[in-house]
Each structure stands twice: as C-alpha cells, then as structure tokens.
Amino acid sequence: MNDRAVSVFENYEIEILRTLKGRGALLCETQEGWFILKEYTGPLARLEIQEKLLAAVKDNGFSQLEQLIRNKEGGLISYDQDRVPYILKTYYEGRECNLKDVRECQSAARTLGRLHNAMHLPELVQEYDVPALCMENEYVKHNRELKKVRRYLREKGQKTEFEIYLLHHYDFFYEKALSAVEELQGYADAFDEAAIKKNSNFCHGDFQHHNILYTPDGFTVINFEKYLLDNPIRDLYLFLRKLLEKNAWSVSLGLNILTAYETQRTLSEADRIQLYYRFAYPEKFWKIVNFYYNNGKAWIPGRNREKLENLLRQETEKKAFLDNALK
C-alpha cells in the first residue's frame, strides 16, 4: 500500500491524530477510536449487503465486530489518485487469538456461538435474495478439479520431483474425496440450498485466529469480506481445523472446543453430520493441488512438498479425531 493511500482519508468525516502502516492496510487513530483503510476488489453490491449484515448483527446483540464507514458522499468505496478502490472500517486494538492457549480458544468458540446466533437474519436473506452455498455442490466441483489435475499429471511427460511425489499419493486422497461426496448424497435434503435459505444463517467465511482479536473488552471479530449464506458449521470447522492442525489433532481439545461452542449454540444432529464430512473431505489436499495447478507449474515452491508431507503425517491423528470425537 503506497503513501498516496493516506490521501483517501480526506474522503471521510474523521479527524486523524496519527496513521500507522499495518499488514496490507493503513490504520488511523482518531478521537472516535481506530479505523482501518484497506483495498477492496469485490463488487459494490456485495459490500452493500455486508454493511447491512454487520449492522444487523450488532442490533442482534453482538457488538464486538467491525463496521463499515461511508464517505462524505455516502459511498462505501473511495478511490486514490490511481483509482484504486478502498474501504474504511472501524478497528480495535488487540492481538490475534493464541491457538496454544486452550482457555482462550474456548472463549473464541463461545464468541463464535454468540456470533452465529446474531447472524440468523431471515429478513436480510429475503430482502436481497442472498444465494446459498451447498457443501455437496462445493465438494462436487472440487472433485471435478481433482479429476482434471489427476489426468493432467498422468499424461504429463517429464515430471518434476514434486509432481512424482504428488501423483504417488494422489489416489489416496482422491478416493477419500469421492467417498465423502458419495456418502453426503444420502443427506442431500438436509444440506441443499433450499434448507440453507430456510435456516437463513450467515457465516463469517474466514473465522480463524487472524480475524479474532483479543481486546480488553473480550474478542472482537474482523474481516467479514468472505461472508456467505451457509450452515454455521463452515466457520466452526475452519476454526477447529486450524487449531487441531497445530495441536496434533487432540481429541480432548476438540471436544473442549465443541463443548464451549455449545454453551451458546446447540449443535443439531444435522450439524454434527456436516461437521464430520467437512473433516472427512480432504480439503487441504485439494488446496495444495489447486495452488499447484493454477499458479504456474514450471516453478513449485518447496513449501508445497512440505505441506503435503505434513498432511500425510497427520492422517492417522486426524482419523482418530474423526472416529473418537465426531462419530
């Protein structure tokens, strides 16, 4: 982010005391508190819904979250001299959630449960006809992509060391992906778009430790740009997966987090089934394959090999978690 972005603050009714550079953003302190200026690449229509979503969640009693700020002209997007689009949001001083602190993670899970209760917004879904995302359709699309890359690797002549290694382990994960989708088809009515629309629950879309700030007033949730209409299990799964990957897939830790979440929002039988299949599907493998195929196959970072090796190492621990915590 260049210094010209500082001039974008002039579009807002705020009196700046000082500015600081953050990670891909500009922070500014004012008499009313802190604000953050970030580049925005999405459509305006989606941003309009995000503003309504954040305000509605606050009205529903969950106040520890960011809000979008409109500029002097009443718009949500402002531009610098090069026509780069920016958005301004409220910001809170704090640190990221510590995934090594069990009590802190339990508190974050309770925060997520309260957030999900406040994100039940049938009026907003109806007013904007927000599209729903179905887990089965999402994974069917992933499987088509996995099939395409598998064929590409098999037909490729001269293979790199990484490609040989990837292809050697490909069918192990690909079969898991196919099996998960096949089993999910038995629950189609519970997880389809119609059911999600009827439930009318939004998800944060990226609920992980980077977006959960520990502040003097408790946890504050930020960066809602990936919000979507889906089963709240999507958020719980992502938070749990990130946590368990760093803690050897501890069954006791996973159960503690689920218990903490359920102090605020009870999981239904359908929720537990969906959580199981989100873990059963090899999403991390799909991400590695997707990154490889779509980001230049001529040069493959060594980090990709490391991620795949770590994934294989954790398979036994992950299976134990699935069998003992979610079945």
TrEMBL record:
<feature type="domain" description="Aminoglycoside phosphotransferase">
    <location>
        <begin position="32"/>
        <end position="261"/>
    </location>
</feature>
<protein>
    <submittedName>
        <fullName>CotS family spore coat protein</fullName>
    </submittedName>
</protein>
<dbReference type="InterPro" id="IPR002575">
    <property type="entry name" value="Aminoglycoside_PTrfase"/>
</dbReference>
<dbReference type="GO" id="GO:0042601">
    <property type="term" value="C:endospore-forming forespore"/>
</dbReference>
<keyword id="KW-0946">Virion</keyword>
<dbReference type="InterPro" id="IPR047175">
    <property type="entry name" value="CotS-like"/>
</dbReference>
<dbReference type="InterPro" id="IPR011009">
    <property type="entry name" value="Kinase-like_dom_sf"/>
</dbReference>
<keyword id="KW-0167">Capsid protein</keyword>
<dbReference type="Pfam" id="PF01636">
    <property type="entry name" value="APH"/>
</dbReference>
